[in-house]
Amino acid sequence: VQLQAYGGGLVQARGSLRLSCAASGRTFGAHAMGWYRQAPGKERELVAGISSGGTTYHADSVKGRFTISRDNAKNTLYLQMNSLKPEDTANYYCAVGGSIANLVKGSMNYWGKGTQVTVSS
Asked: How far apart are the first and last CA of the chain?
C-alpha cells in the first residue's frame, strides 16, 4: 500500500495550490481519508477529512479556504487550498483511517510521504 502526495510548492500569500494524493496497492473507497500537516517545531494537525460517503471535516484554521474532495474511481484524494497564508507553511501528507473520528484522534491505518507547501508573505 502506498500513498503519495504531490502538488506542493512555493506560493505567495493569497495564492492557491491543489494537492493530490494517489493511493495504490488497494482501494480506499470504504475508508475515510484525510490531510494532515506538520510544521517544524509544531504538532501534527488534521487539516481536513472526508468519509467514504462524502461527509467532510475542515479544521477551523482552514474553513472557508481549503476544500477536501475525493475521486474513488481514481483512488485519489484532493485538497484545494485558496487564500493561502504564511502560517499554512508545512509538510502536508495524506492518510487513511476507519472514520473521520479516527482521523481526528490521529488513529491512521495508512499514511504516506508528504509534500512541502511554503507560503511567502
From this structure: 37
Identity at 88, one-letter amino acid code: D
Does 61 score more than 90 pLDDT?
yes
User: Does pLDDT of 28 surpass 90?
Assistant: no
Contact of 70 with 50, CB cutoff 8 Å = yes
> Residue 113 carries which DSSP code?
B
Inter-residue contact 52 to 30 (CB < 8 Å) = yes
The pLDDT score that the predictor gives to residue 95 is 94
Distance CA 33, CA 105 (A): 13
* 103 phi and psi angles, rounded to 5 deg: -65, -40
Beta-strand relationship, 9-12 and 115-120? parallel
Contact 109, 31 (CB under 8 A): yes
